[in-house]
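User: Teach me something about this protein's shape.
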Amino acid sequence: MKTLARIFFIIVLFAFQNAFSNAKHQQVKSEAEKVAETTLKKQILKEASWAMQQKPVTVTASFSPRSAGGKHDFFSEADYFWPDPQDPDAPYINRDGLTNPDNFVEHRKAMIRFSKIIGALASAYKITGDKKYVAQAVIHLKAWFIDPKTLMNPSLWYAQAVHGKFTGRNYGIIDTIHLMEVAQGVLVVEASGAMDPQTTEGIKNWFAAYTNWLMTSKPGIQEKLTKNNHSTCWAMQVASFAKLCNNVAVLDSIRVLYKTVLLPNQMGTDGSFPLEIARTKPYGYSIFNLDAMATLCQILSTPQDNLWNFETMDGKSIKKGITYLYPFVANKSKWTLKPDVMYWDNWPVAQPFLLFGANAYNENNWLVTWQKLDHQPAVEEVIRNLPIRHPLIWL
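Assistant: First, the predicted structure itself:
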């Protein structure tokens, strides 16, 4: 009888634990989140199945002889710089908006792949509660942030180098926007309780170190002070990484930056971004910067300080930005400015500002448009400028 009672107790305990685990995944969902899950579930599970088969590939898997750094340093070359046709041995020259296909981009590709893997696994865990996805994510997280043989240094001294001019530039900091879904994915899977404390601490220590580098290094400070999408993306990254590390002071400082610098200085009174419109790819850059600002609002908003509701004295707000651009995303033929010099036909895709905005303002038209657009872009340039590819983990 004692044996039967013990077995019965174990069964009841197991059932209770399962019920508790499932309850944690049955939180109250907004309409936008329900629609997003329904729209993306099949895709998420397919991507997660792929991710379960992948082995880690970090920056140590490839190296460029043109890099001034070591094998643990991220390296990339500036996209819009080309050999001088008058002198092939001279420093490269800028051709704004035109991507040089011969640049070294292997580290960027590895980071994007890493982001896809963690984003897919975290999304699958969120909708299923299956901890096998957490276990697989941990393998990749350890490789990038903890294993001394394969980790990436928490700095970006050698990103977007220019042959003959710079071994690295502050503009290269934009390359690590693809670590944001990694950080957000960690927040999601951490709640599973399946990550050991040492691993969690190691990952957060890496992001804390990188956040410190972004805020204190010369390139980091330079990037913060740029006036266009680069400063928005600097802030977006710092906010994302600080949220993972629960750095309240940094989060507060980025909220202030958004209210006093980014939004008022970058947005026109009509909701456009004049500095992005002035580029050779005004459509793509307008979308990109709006995505970044909307993501900032998604990361930073709290019940006490909701950036979705913030408006400057002269009427600038994230809602005005979405309202301005939305008609051109819903119907690109309405765009009245010059078309982009490259990738004009590849935008828009399922832009996160549509989903996040629909969630914040209950705007069904934005949500429907988001549903209809491409959720699996394959063009590298589009992927490079789309850091939020797994929006479910952000809702």
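Now, about its shape. The mean pLDDT is 93. Residues 2-24 form the longest helix (23 residues). If you'd like, I can walk through any region in more detail.
User: That's plenty for now, thanks!
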